[in-house]
Each structure stands twice: as C-alpha cells, then as structure tokens.
Amino acid sequence: MTQRCQVAGPATGHLVVMETTLRISNVVLFELPAYADVDELNTRIRPRWPGSQELVADVWLVTARVRRSKTDLAFLLREIEAYVGEAGLQAIRYWLDGRFYIMEAPALDRAASL
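RE: above sequence
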C-alpha cells in the first residue's frame, strides 16, 4: 500500500508530498536536519530497529521498523528522545501511523543548555 505524507523543507518551510510504501503499523519515520545526525542516530538504533535513510527535499529521513511486541515502540521512542537531547537538538518531527508528531529533547537537557 502506498501512503502519502508531507515533509517540510527546512529552508522554505513549505510542505512537499512524499510517496512511500511503508506499512503504517510497523514503521516510524524520523526527520533529521543534517547527515551527521543520521550517522549518529543509525549508530544508536541499528541493528535493533532495521530501516533505511533517504534525503528528500533537503530533509534526512530515517526509518525504523518496530517489532510486534507491546514494548518495542515505547523503547524506540525513549531511545530517540534520549538521542535528541544528547545530540543538542531541541526537537525533531516523526511520522507514525499516518500522522506527524514532535519529539522534544528531555526538559532537563534543554534547561541545562540555556
């Protein structure tokens, strides 16, 4: 099944449509601002969560395939939240089940960096 999602271009803030064949139920897509962030994230989440990476409209997209266990998605999202804080990012967008969400750095990390 082909899904359509919108990805914001960083320079213009305009949304572009991206065609994807991802299964909604088991794949999470993360938007990252730079390739260096992609390398760091892949090092952190692979091989536990297989997936891919792709540059679309100046935004790096990293996918992660979750297992069908009750806790796998929660573990992945906690790992991503920790990564966002440690990488010095304020927040990233991610796509899950056909909707975009914002993953913010943990509050303590943001307060310490101010």
